[in-house]
Write a structure and sequence with these properties.
Layout: H1 13-29, H2 36-39, H3 45-61, E1 66-72, H4 76-82, E2 88-93, E3 104-107, E4 116-125, H5 136-142, E5 143-153, H6 164-169, E6 174-179, E7 195-200, E8 203-209, H7 217-230, E9 240-242, E10 250-251, E11 257-262, E12 268-272
Parallel strand pairs: 1-9, 3-12
Antiparallel strand pairs: 1-2, 4-5, 4-9, 4-10, 5-6, 7-8, 7-11, 11-12
């Protein structure tokens, strides 16, 4: 496509590339930028996804690796707050995966801008989902195992002044991720009612359940699989998918320790070093 060609939204490919580069520089050099909805008038989700995709392409060219996908805006209350009627998604980049050793993970606080943490469920997909109208039941059948997950959400947008297009373009506000051990037994649990508690520096702070993610985490993953497929990107065997927050986010700073406790799973802790 020629550099100055115009996307279906009316935004040129050159503009898409420029905004992706702006976000990439903010990520690499650790500074915030004005909301794209304000500075550039980017309002529609389709354009924002084009920016997100171009940014991922930039990172892949430098050696980044995709390990899966993340789902955001799975809470009906948050959707109403942002004036949208569906979730959004982003890409999990391997460079921000912080492996847990004996249930404990560490992340360097200095690489983040304005981080928050949230507790989620992670799905390990064992079969490529590439057919029309994928259902939650088919998601569960294709899931090899599940795990407790702590997602670090972070925003390159100044003071989290985000609208839908801002967070989509900004890779759904991805910051990082750590996971507990994979559990095949969780596949047999009622994921709607599975409970979680997140403690902050030893104090239980937020409480949630699987139903917070679109009523059932597998519903959220089915939405993702169908949304990706509409863009010609099937959810792949081997992908990790985090289902969306099961409770409110908690701001984080250097020295903080978060512990996620989920029914039937060992505790998972994350320390900001």
């Amino acid at each position: 496509m020629p550099e100055q060609s115009v996307a279906s939204s009316g935004v040129t490919e050159a503009t898409i590339a420029t905004l992706a580069q702006r976000l990439d520089r903010a990520w690499e050099e650790r500074f915030t930028i004005a909301p794209l909805t304000e500075s550039e008038g980017i309002e529609d989700a389709a354009t924002a996804y084009r920016i997100q995709t171009h940014w991922t392409t930039l990172r892949l060219a430098r050696g980044e690796r995709i390990i899966g996908r993340k789902i955001g805006l799975t809470s009906k209350a948050v959707q109403e707050q942002m004036g949208v009627n569906e979730p959004d998604y982003g890409t999990l980049w391997a460079s921000r995966y912080f492996p847990a050793v004996n249930g404990r993970a560490e992340a360097p606080a200095a690489i983040f801008l304005q981080p928050r943490v949230e507790g989620e469920l992670a799905f390990l997909i064992g079969e490529t989902l590439d057919w029309p109208e994928i259902t939650p039941q088919q998601v569960m059948a294709a899931t090899v195992a599940l795990a407790a997950a702590i997602e670090i959400v972070d925003s390159r947008i100044d003071r989290w002044r985000i609208k839908l297009a801002d967070t989509i373009a900004d890779n759904a506000s991805y910051g990082g991720i750590t996971l507990g051990p994979w559990s095949k037994a969780l596949r047999g649990s009622d994921l709607r009612t599975i409970g979680m508690v997140m403690s902050h520096n030893g104090k239980p702070t937020v409480f949630g359940a699987g139903a917070a993610a679109l009523g059932h985490p597998a519903v959220a993953v089915a939405w993702l699989a169908n949304k990706l497929r509409s863009f010609g990107i099937p959810l792949q065997a081997g992908d990790i998918v985090i289902s969306g927050a099961l409770a409110a986010t908690i701001p984080a700073q250097q020295g903080d320790i978060f512990v996620l406790e989920m029914h039937g799973q060992p505790p998972l802790s994350l320390r900001f070093t």
